[in-house]
Amino acid sequence: MGCVSTAVAQHERKVLGIIPSAFTVNNLVRETCGKEIKVATMHERLLTMMELSDAFIALLSGFGTLEELFQMIS
User: Fold this and answer.
1) Which of 21, 43, 58, 74 has CB atoms 3.0–4.6 Å from 69's, for a disulfide?
2) pTM (2 decimals)?
3) CB of 62 within 8 A of CB of 73?
4) pLDDT tier at 65 (50, 70, 90 boundaries)?
5) What is the rounded CA–CA span in Å between residue 67 and residue 65?
6) How far, in Å, CA of 5 to CA of 8, rounded?
7) Phi and psi for 34 in degrees, rounded to 5?
8) What is the pLDDT of residues 2-32, one digit of tens each?
9) Cβ–Cβ < 8 Å for 29, 11
10) Which phi and psi angles does 11 have, rounded to 5°?
11) What b/e sequence results for 16-47 when a residue is b if at least 16 CB atoms lie within 10 Å of its CB, and e otherwise?
């Protein structure tokens, strides 16, 4: 996702990172190149994404990504 957000920002488009606060400990995520919203839980992250997004994409990843995608669809 870092490569995607960097490319979007380079083309002067909006980038929004919604990150659970637990992931910000020990630098588990890299610096966001746009606006960043820290939330308490993964559930709150999904709710915030649903409220603020017009569309969703999923890149190849693991089971967590599939879970988030299915939650968005349902």
Assistant:
1) 58
2) 0.72
3) no
4) confident
5) 5
6) 5
7) -140, -150
8) 788 888 888 988 888 888 888 776 655 566 6
9) no
10) -95, 20
11) ebbebeeeeeeeeeeebeeeeeebeeeeebbe
Q: Which residue has the tokens 């992931």?
A: 23
CA 38, chain centre distance (Å): 10
Q: Cα torsion at 31, 55, 14, 5 (round to 10°)?
A: 30
> With 0-12 CB in 10 A as exposed, 13-18 as middle and 19+ as buried, what is 70?
exposed
Scan for tokens 């929004």, then name that residue: 16
Using an 8 Å Cβ cutoff, are 36 and 23 in contact? no
**Position of tokens 């996702």?**
1
The alpha carbon torsion through 20, 21, 22, 26 (nearest 10 deg) reads 120
Q: Which two tokens stand for residue 70?
A: 């299915």
- Give the whole-angstrom CA distance, residue 20 versus residue 24: 7
